Amino acid sequence: MSSTETSTNTADQMVDTAYPFAAVPSNEAAQRYIAIAADRPMTKMTMPIGGDVWVIHRNAAAREMLSDPRFVRGPFRTGERAVPYFVEFPDFLKSTIQFEDPPHHTKLRKLVQKSISPKRVRAMRESAVEFANQLIDAMITKGASANLVSDYAVALPIQMLSNLLGVPPEDRPKFQKWSAATLAVANMPEDEVVQNMTELFMYLTALIEDRRKNPREDLLSDLANAPDKDDSLTDGEILPIAMILIVAGFDNTANFICSGVLSLLRHPDQLEVLLEDVDTVAPTAVEEILRNGRMAIYDTVAGGGGLVPFVATADVEIDGQIIAEGEAVLVDPAAVNHDGIALEDAGKFDVRRKNNPQLTLSYGLHHCLGAPLARMEMQVAITELFKRLPGLTLAGEVVVDNDNLTLPIVDLPVTW
């Protein structure tokens, strides 16, 4: 089930408002999102897995839903119902904080936020800059071309994630190998994935136990040794937190870095703006990459996507639309980031954009826990790369793994 094909007038031309929609050029996709949002706040559609779900198109409506405690994820976590989505969620993801609801979600989130505070992230920035330059040095030493995914975009966030969790330097090569097993960037056979996931769980369990006895300045130590008895966590609670940080802090950030570089290379006018004053422009450029970066990956863009869904625990009216008790709802980040209501010129990639209410990292109770770290890593990655290699250009076809939950870029060939 989806919308019927109606039309609306956008920029003095008739634009199709059917949703979802088949792949079209990115500029046309942006115009369709604007027209759809002008036509209605959301569309009910039937997902390949899990049945029907309301998909929100308007930024304000998305913020209202994401701030409303009557929308929960418990039924997905318990297995009471399947997650309505484009692909099936791995079971281990459904055991993480991402699928928890208050009050337990509040307790876990409060503890993690103390460890990923802006202060701690600022303290990590210097080491991120140093490591980014080490990676760039290694690329230059090897020659004048590289696969930016494996040589840069994955390596930087995994190093920062290791620092955050407290993985000792001598364990980082195997930690990266195990972490990659949770993601498609590894392209591993299934039996190898299972083996690596098992080894990762065993390693993290042992590390948590060690940090209880020998605490250090890292997140696992903070979680294992909460000062308040009421905040104390079991190993079974800490492990899913570590796992969601690995997935979100490794795969997603690597994808954001890649889509950012690709967006800049495919918008030379905006790259020129960045190069004029990299340090000043990088923060707004990163927000624009989060908002619009996926639009640059393909020659054409299909309309249909979403953050993790919720279930309504009562009849709730959002922007004039009733979501009935028991119905599922999710936010399409591409749609709400291009709704043409929350920001002007939604179809334009603008690295100096000041008003940028993008929702790629969600909002409200489930706003991405690692958002400060992801932003810092993206700013450092973009800044250092283009400072050192301002003549960076594409050197071949970009390859995306379309069979994976996060649609990661697995090959981004560049030269300089």
From TrEMBL:
Superkingdom of origin organism: Bacteria
One Pfam family in the UniProt entry: p450
CDD domains (alphabetical): Cyp158A-like
Alphabetical UniProt keywords: Heme, Iron, Metal-binding, Monooxygenase, Oxidoreductase
Database matches in PANTHER family: P450, PUTATIVE (EUROFUNG)-RELATED (PTHR46696)
Similarity section: Belongs to the cytochrome P450 family.
Name of the featured protein: Cytochrome P450
